[in-house]
Amino acid sequence: MIKLSFPFTEEKIRALKVGDEVLISGIVFTGRDAVHKYLHDGGKLPPGVNLRDGILYHCGPVVMKQADGSWKCTAAGPTTSIREEPYQWQVIRDCGLRGVIGKGGMGDRTLAACKEHGCAYLHAVGGAAQVLADCIKKVRNVYMMKEFGAPEAIWEFEIVNFPAVVTMDSHGNSLHKEIFAKSHAALAARL
Fold this sequence. Notes:
Elements: E1 2-5, H1 10-14, E2 21-30, H2 33-40, E3 55-57, E4 62-65, E5 71-75, H3 85-95, E6 99-102, H4 108-117, E7 120-123, H5 129-133, E8 136-143, H6 145-148, E9 154-168, H7 175-190
Parallel strand pairs: 1-2, 2-3, 3-6, 6-7
Antiparallel strand pairs: 2-9, 4-5, 7-9, 8-9
């Protein structure tokens, strides 16, 4: 198990390879469909959101406002990442991302951007939303709530030992591509 902690430098990310299990600690921001399309269309990140050398989590968390005005995350499972494929390469390039957490993998354009810009795709376990929420020690802020609503807003989380597996690395390797090819070959052999 590799401890991956903020700041997420290019050197740390380029040292990772497909199959590595990581425990992530530090600051991450969430971003789903609305954020990706907004950035793709030329939108600017609000002050306070800096994705450079950061990790973007494909997640629409369940959060509850506490009596003191703070937020508590009660569920934070990954959302299906392939929906962001038309935009992710550009967000990696323009925002200087070092990591993307999600589920299900992504396509060739994202893989190429990971290789070129020193980024990795980190697969989180689907169906474990409450367990993953336990890794969120603090909800530091929320941005663009008014524009996008709670699930699509940009949430800033402080996480400790968030588990993930590197399934697309910065060297052009993709576990998702490998599995697809093996499955396709096995299916062809049966026909």
